[in-house]
Amino acid sequence: MQVDVDGRVLTIRAERSPRTDADVQWLRRERATGTFERRLTLGDGLDLDRIAATWQDGVLTLTIPVAETAKPRRIEINTGGQVIESTKTAAITRS
Fold it and tell me: SHSP domain: from which residue to which, for each copy (predicted)?
């Protein structure tokens, strides 16, 4: 199995081999065998340098964290000489 990121495109490649159990006679197989590839275009605001992948019990899990710059943050409001803290969280996005 292979996971790659090129720009904003995440690519997953893998190969599923047929089981070769000598003592099993298959009546029907519903899982396809061979190679496959999936490509996903990732949105803005993700930290592509910190993508993590784990494989456990036959399940691939990808963790793609949100970039710090894309997370909502509290903004202080300056009113002349006095600084007060805003009561709402503002989401700042880059264009």
Answer: 1-80
How many whole angstroms separate alpha carbon 22 and alpha carbon 1?
25
Q: Tokens 């996903």 — which residue? A: 40
Domain carrying residue 26: 2-67
Q: How far apart are CA 73 and CA 43, in angstroms?
A: 20
CATH code for position 49: 2.60.40.790
Q: Do 46 and 94 contact (CB within 8 A), yes or no?
A: no
State yes or no: pLDDT of 14 exceeds 80: yes
Q: What are phi and psi of 92, to 5 degrees?
A: -105, 125
Q: How far apart are CA 42 and CA 67, in angstroms?
A: 13
